[in-house]
Structures are given as structure tokens and as C-alpha cells.
Amino acid sequence: MTLRAKICEPESEEPYWKVIFALLNYSNHKVSVQKLEYWSLDNQENMKCIHWGPGEMILGEQPSFLCHSIKIPCSASNTSPRLAFSWQYSKLPEWNRTKGGKPKLEKGTIRKRFRNMLCLENADKEHKHDTGHMNLKASKKRTA
Hints:
Elements: E1 2-8, E2 16-25, E3 31-40, E4 48-51, E5 58-59, E6 64-73, E7 83-91, E8 95-97, E9 103-105, H1 107-118, H2 121-131, H3 136-143
């Protein structure tokens, strides 16, 4: 997420600040963007919100980006605007095409999400290392 501001001084109109908000996607997943909110820290601008409908603004896999720019009138001192901003976005699930043309969620993705939800991903790896191929009866006789 980035914010850049530059002053523009066209001959035909008053000078203004051009503020550019950018959301960059460097992940291996598609991202659905819901909204961008921004507001002035100097109380010059009220909070403003730009909404996108479900599936309307989707960023592809890496690298991809979304930019939105606004104009803010220059103040007498020409100091750059102090803005805060927030993006709302979410990772899209991975889909596979089927013969019927309907997208289908990958089984591996469902399992992975369920394991992540229960924090079992690392537990499975540890369990495989613990059990190995040892004969449990033989080990009990040795320790007794």
C-alpha cells in the first residue's frame, strides 16, 4: 500500500495536489478489493470511501496493482496534504475448471484451510517424524 502526492500547477487553473493511492499484490493469489477509505489528518477533508462491488475489482497474481487518484486544492502555504488511508481486500479461493464449466474448489485447498484453522499443519509434520518405522513392542521390552 502506498500513497504519493505531487503538486500540479496547470496554467489554466489553480494549483492542486494530485494524491495517488496504490495497492500492490505481490502474492501468488488473486485478491478481491472491496473499498478504499481516506481522510485528512488536519480535518480539512472528511472521511471518503470508494466501494467496489463483489468481483468488480480483482487483482491478478503477482505482480498486479490498483491505483486511485484524487485532487486536493492547494492551501496558501502549499504544504503537502496529510492523509490517512485504509484498503479493504481479501484473498480469493483457488478454483479449478471442470468439464461442465462450473468452477470447483480444489480439495487440497479445502484440506489446507481446515488444517490451518485447527493449527494442524505443523502437528502432522511432527507426527510423521515421531512415529517413523519403529517397532513399538521392541522398544517397550528394551526400556522395561
